[in-house]
Amino acid sequence: MATGPRYTVKYRRRNQGKTNYHTRLALLKSRQHRLVIRKTNKYITCQIIDYVETGDKVISATNSKQLIKMGWKHSCSNTTAAYLTGLMLSSAAQKAKVKNAILDVGLYSSTKGAVIYAALKGAIDGGLEIPHNPEIFPTEDRILGKHTKSKDLSKELEAIKKKIN
Known about the structure:
By secondary structure, the chain is an alpha+beta fold. It has a single domain, classed as 2-Layer Sandwich (Nucleotidyltransferase, domain 5), CATH 3.30.420.100. Helix 4 runs parallel beside helix 5. It starts with 11 loop residues before the first helix and ends with a helix.
């Protein structure tokens, strides 16, 4: 076993498929807070992040798993849950005195009406100023859950919105 010096690979996260450094640099040059939205199989995560030379600093963060504590009984990765998560984040961001940000979706492919844009709509409806095109948002029926035959989430959405505000 060799005990020589260890070398780090430049752009390791690019090789792992986790970071696009050209996009990241463009976002960091704006010198604004970033609204980072990530979707996993089970949850939606929203964060307000600020760049610091020693590493990114999370100013406020929320996860759709917190909806369960508020009485949410449905999937935490659907469009309605993403909208509510964006609302929760904007509430937390206002407490941290953040008023505006730019959207950072990472390597997520941008599709009109996607779940990440439901979270963006929630953050904007909550009071954050984020540059956007309103055409990318999901329809109100999708946010309210009316597109499914089995459930209409509008009553539960309103109840959770009251708890968030």
